[in-house]
Structures are given as structure tokens and as C-alpha cells.
Write a structure and sequence with these properties.
Elements lengths: L4 H6 L2 H15 L3 H8 L2 H17 L2 H22 L3 E5 L3 E6 L8 H18 L2 E5 L8 H16 L4 E4 L2
Parallel strand pairs: 2-3, 3-4
Antiparallel strand pairs: 1-2
Helix pairs in contact: 3-4, 4-5, 6-7
């Protein structure tokens, strides 16, 4: 463009617009329209929101950053909603199987599970086993909840075993 500005200046503007429209058409993925039909509503919404932000602000970086933030919020809300644990009881023990990482968003549900196994252990005089199944406590606040639970079990003389895998 720098070296051929005189030649480019002679090309009609309508021809340049036509070339740009062809480039846009060839780079646009028509499968994005099918996202909505296939039930990927969030993905479709994300593409629309990001595109609108880019067009309104003329800032690609801002559109991408907002798209990433919206995706992170969606991921966090899904993890909060679908926290996956199961309680298994037998004659001698209560087993809490944790099937995903625990973070600040799921710590409230984790605390509900801990309270439930504590109640069952006191009623049935059972030991408690917590299996993390190669999952982790990711943040400090959830770690403090778990440490308080361990101290409470020690004070109540309830045997507690924690398995990392």
C-alpha cells in the first residue's frame, strides 16, 4: 500500500469494496449459523456479542477480551451449577467421592456435602473417607473450609481419612 498508493488511488472505490466483501465472505465460517440450530446457544451468543463489540468499538482486542471474560463467567457458572460429588455409605464408613476440582464457586456446595457426611457419621458412628480422585482444592477459601472441617472431626473424635487419588 505504501509503495503503490498512486496505483491504488486509481482503482474505483466500489471495486475495493467488492474485493473486501469477497474476502469477508470467504473468511466467514457459515457453520457458525448452524451453532444455534444444533443447540450451542452460548457459543452462538458469544460470537454475536464479540462481533457486535468489535463493530461498535472498532477494537478487535477489546472484543476478544470481553469474549474471553464472558466465556470464563459461563464456565464458572456451569461449574457452580453442576458440582459433582457422591456420598456412599456402608456399615463402617461414609465415603465422599469428589469428582472434580473445588474452587470458590463450588465451595458452598462442598460445605453442604461435608455437613451431610458429618451428620451421617454422628448418627451412625461411622468413620469418614474423602476421596479426591486426583482432583484438587484450588483456592484458599475452600482450603480453609476443609481445614475447619478436619479440626471439627478431630474435636468430635470422628476418624477421617483423606485420599488424594
Amino acid at each position: 500500500i505504501l509503495f503503490f498508493k498512486n496505483i491504488i488511488g486509481m482503482i474505483p472505490l466500489a471495486a475495493l469494496v467488492g474485493i473486501m466483501l469477497i474476502v469477508v465472505y470467504n473468511t466467514f465460517d457459515l457453520e457458525l449459523i448452524n451453532l444455534y440450530k444444533k443447540g450451542y446457544y452460548f457459543d452462538f451468543f458469544l460470537v454475536i456479542v464479540t462481533t457486535i463489540i468489535i463493530v461498535i468499538t472498532s477494537n478487535l482486542a477489546l472484543g476478544v477480551v470481553i469474549g474471553v471474560i464472558v466465556t470464563m463467567l459461563n464456565y464458572t457458572l456451569k461449574k457452580i451449577k453442576y458440582f459433582n460429588c457422591e456420598i456412599v455409605t456402608n456399615d463402617k464408613e461414609i465415603i465422599l467421592n469428589i469428582n472434580e476440582d473445588i474452587f470458590f464457586g463450588s465451595s458452598e456446595k462442598f460445605l453442604i456435602y461435608l455437613d451431610e457426611i458429618e451428620k451421617q457419621s454422628i448418627l451412625n458412628n461411622n468413620d469418614i473417607i474423602i476421596n479426591f480422585n486426583n482432583h484438587n482444592i484450588i483456592d484458599y477459601s475452600t482450603l480453609m473450609i476443609f481445614k475447619k472441617f478436619i479440626l471439627k472431626m478431630e474435636q468430635k473424635k470422628i476418624k477421617l481419612k483423606v485420599n488424594e487419588s
